[in-house]
Amino acid sequence: VTETQGEVLTYQGELITAAFFSSCNGYTNNSEDYWSNSSPYLRSVESAWDKSVALNTQTKEFSLVDFSNVLGFQNTVKSIGKPEYYKNGYVKSIVIDGIKFSGREIREALSLRSSAFEIKLNKQTVHITTEGFGHGIGMSQYGAKAMAEAGYDYKKILKHYYTDVEITAL
After folding, report:
1. What are the contacts of 46-50 at 24+ separation with CB within 8 A?
2. How does pLDDT run across 25-62, given as a tens digit for each residue?
3. Distance in angstroms (rounded) separating the CA atoms of residues 168 and 101
4. DSSP per position, 39-58
5. 8-25 mean pLDDT
6. Are strands 139-140 and 20-21 parallel, antiparallel or unpaired?
7. What gap in Å lies between CA 4 and CA 16, rounded to an integer?
8. Which strand (E) or helix (H) includes residue 63?
9. What confidence score (pLDDT) does residue 54 get?
10. How many other C-beta atoms lie within 10 A of the C-beta of residue 40?
11. pLDDT of amino acid 56
12. Alpha-carbon distance 98 to 118, whole Å?
């Protein structure tokens, strides 16, 4: 904290939105792949350190009835399509009984840890396995911690997670 006193992160002279999250699936997310706006410094980058985080993977099981109700279906869901993924492993979209949902919509409706998930429909249950915890945009807290433990300084860590930013005196 003392080392960074009086410093801010900027992109082309403007303060950035320094988004962060707990952990990811090994890659961060592009801002526009989860939020509606694109930000040139919030790009997907590798964060392999997150793969070793304990409890980074979580499986949730839903009854088919509960799954259907939470997503707003009047009847029990009959089909769950194969998710369409972004290159970084986050779900772009998935078709459920003919209705297309974004990965974010599914994550938020079902209170999942991440939109990086796999989904499996069994006879009367739906199993969803997520990787990571959070929206995946910006800096991974566990990734940054692991980088620091490996000897990276704060400047390298910040410039890894925030593309083309400058560390500027306030």
Report:
1. 47/140, 47/143, 47/161, 49/140, 49/142, 49/143, 49/145, 49/146, 49/147, 49/150, 50/23, 50/24, 50/25, 50/26, 50/132, 50/140, 50/142, 50/143, 50/146
2. 999 999 999 998 999 999 999 999 998 876 789 999 99
3. 40
4. -TT----B-GGGGG-TT-EE
5. 96
6. parallel
7. 16
8. strand 57-63
9. 66
10. 12
11. 83
12. 18
pLDDT at 1 over 90: no
pTM score: 0.91
Tell me how crowded residue 133 is: count the other CB atoms within 10 A of its CB.
23
Decide if 144 contacts 161 (C-beta within 8 A): yes
Among candidate residues 24, 18, 4, the one with its CA nearest the CA of residue 143: 24
Paired tokens of 72? 């707003």
Question: What residue has token string 């972004």?
Answer: 86
Would the CA dihedral through 135, 141, 142, 143 be positive or negative?
Answer: positive
Tell me the residue type at 91. V
Interval 65-124: pLDDT, tens: 999 999 999 999 999 999 999 999 999 999 999 999 999 999 999 999 999 999 999 989
